[in-house]
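Hey, can you fold this one?
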Amino acid sequence: MANTSKKKKAEKTEVVAKCDHPKEPVTNCDQSIEVIANCENPQETTLSQYDIEKLIVTVRGEQVLIDQDIARIYGVTTSRLNQQAKRNIARFPESFRFQLTKEERDEVVAKCDNLRSLKFYPSLPYAYTEQGIGQLSTVVHSKIAIERSIMIMNAFVAMRRFMVQNAGILMRIAHLEKHQIETDQKMDMLLDKMDKQSPKLLPEQIFATGCVWDAWAYVSDLVRSAKYRIVLIDNFVDDRVLSLLDKRADHVEATIHSRYYESFQTDLKKHNEQYREIHFLQLPHKNHDRFLIIDDDVYLLGASVKDMGIGLCAITKMMTTPETILDLLK
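Sure. Predicted structure:
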């Protein structure tokens, strides 16, 4: 009898001495709550049923509590809790207590901050159902365990009642979420189809007489595609060219090499007073061909930009470098 009394006393001392994470707050997904603020006196800790409800998670379609959270509520170590269950394994069939798989553990850790330390545990955690909690109160012999087992079971009942009372609303939310996912998938498919069928910027493009809009749209797309510079070499430019170059991205520099015309200089000055500056360099001599430089690519233009599409013309991507063309202007 004396040995039995000493053994029980030693076990009680071990529960207090090995209490998990003393004075550490437990966080449930969105919020932090202090489940066990003082492990030496867990019965003095204020714990509401709502606090416990926030710790309940769903695994394999079952509402469960993870062993780490239960141990903190009881004021014992996780290993002690599972050891007691193992010693009385006949009381804990698979429907009462089951071990999480690695995938299930990772999903629980990802959703709930209070369980993030499980990621570094050497063994996989156990989940206890409502019936499993009821059995725990019979194997973890302490007043606080019995009291809080009742609170936990009441929390499960409250959660179940909430699910029943709000089943219609929850089903509608699930339906809306499913509908939103299906809508997003359809939109992605539609956008992919539009992208595949939309005209691409080809190395060369030929425009028949009268295709002014097609030619203008093609050059506009070239301007929009620029990453850092646009250089236009064209003997004849007007205010329409300024409007075209304004389609470029904010950080892209634009330069026009052209012949000097008083009317265009007036337009350019007024433009630069209000909008991003477009640089102008006078051509040292008359050039027959026109070129459009987009970053490191050179396009040969079959007509001046302002006249593209009025007559049969082509735009051809060249193999030469922009520096080769720019050096020939000097």
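Residues 1-44 have pLDDT under 50 and may be disordered. Let me know if you want another pass with a different chain boundary.
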